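## retry 2 of 3
previous attempt timed out at serialization; input unchanged, resubmitting
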Amino acid sequence: MTIFGANEIAQREPDARRLGWIRLAIGVVQGLALYLLYLSLARQLWATNELRMLWPATVPGLFAPLVLVFAWLPVVLLGAVGRMRLRTLLIWSATAAAVLALMGWWSVIWGVRPNGLNEPLASPVVFIASAVMLFIAHHLILPADRARRWIAPYPAYFDTAWKAGVQLALSVAFTGAFWLLLFLGAGLFNVIGIDFLSDLIRQDWFSIPVTTLTFSAAVHLTDVKDGLIRGVRTVVLMLLSWLMPVMTLITAAFILVLPFAGVGRLWDEGYGTGLMLLAAAALIILINAAYQDGEPDGAPPAMLQWAARIAGVLLAPLMGLALWGMALRIGQHGLTPERIIALTCVLLGVVYAAGYAFAAVKPGPWMRPLERTNVIAAVATVLAILALFTPIADPARLSVADQMRRLESGRVSAERFDYAFLRFDAGRSGLRALERLSQSDDPEVARRASEARHVADRYTLDQIAPGLTIEVLPGSPALPENFLDDPAPGDQRASCRSEGGCLAAARDLNGDGQMEWLVANAYRLAVYQRISEGWREIGGYEVNACRPRRLDARDLLRGGLTLVPSPLPDLAVDGARIPLTPRVDCAP
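## retry succeeded, writing output
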């Protein structure tokens, strides 16, 4: 028995050693490639055809695809080498590289902000989405390849994905610890006047390759210690599973209290939908931590089983609220790329909610339909990311089409249409739409679109865009003739160009017989006083300084205001008047 074990170890050692060298080579190639990409960006090498032949990253539009490929593809190879059949590995690597290149190219050539400061790089959301897509797709393909089936048994999916997640976290932590030690060593040498190490770690040719090499070494070290990874994973899953009853209780209490607190308050702060999604994601992760691979011998205690069933049912109202919030927001303001991505996340959450609710109430083995739901949702997530960040369902293109429909149907007037969105937030689709609008039969639309096409930044567009939207409160006189003339930068009247506009009312605040004007936007109440040159903002009221939730200053103005005399006078020093600056005291 002992001899056989020794022979088995001796046979496996060359394989582990060979895999180690392969992974280190992957890390070195990744580091050198990323360093050359960084060098080409830092030096702005977009010059000659000869240079482009030597290094294709210097060709505009190829830099972002290459960064995505060399940032994420080596990580996939580190996890696939030695575990996946060679043919599958080659096909999957080529497919992943092609998809990453397409996502990076589309982001900078046609997607959002093609002319922005970050043009050479894909947008951050593309980096995150591509990483998520690769992680999910890789752990759908690897178990299926090892099982020699199109769809692997669910325990294989669970084991592979959760093991890889723990391994990835430990590898990142190891790389971070390595750099902490380098900085510590540099500090020690600096104390005695030796700067070699601190100078070395500041060199890009050293820091980038050594980081990728360290990460590759960490992946290999954690891979050969399979028992260690499984032990860490077991502890993490056990701890997470016992957090599930806490999150379930919190969610249940929230849903029960919500009708009494007022559902409308969810949307007052502007991030209610995001909170619903985060709560749902937390429940999904914790339910899976308790369920694990679904094998009967690993079933959790009855308390956790019932908590998981309740949590599965609670996902439905959470996602219903998130879907309602998205519908309200889109109905009010139309589609934007951010709202399309958020809506996609909500719809994927609905898939989880439906499957988990069915698993919770279905008789039979505990939560067994959860397995099929996880696989279906994983495939749907990969397909959704592919669609959103390629030409298939480009959020910028869909958003522009929706905003144009709102303008053409009259739901949004020419004065209140968001030309800045087309100019700065919708990529080339927005620029093309602006070009079409500049030739519109409506002279106001054509003029505003033409102005938007030729500005360099939002501030300039705000300055040239006339038409302040200020509604006068009934019972107040008409706005003075010159009140809307060219507000200075920072003047609250300039914010009245945004959607929703402002509300104004005349009041004699100081009892001098002259009317001051109160102008309210969504956040603040500004006070204007007549001067020889026109009207000047002399101050304002921060209406939400003592409020636990945001109130619209326009609603306060509509509801009527009570003037409370100031108890303390101003000071006069050498002819200068110094007003009292009150301390905000939120006590009753």
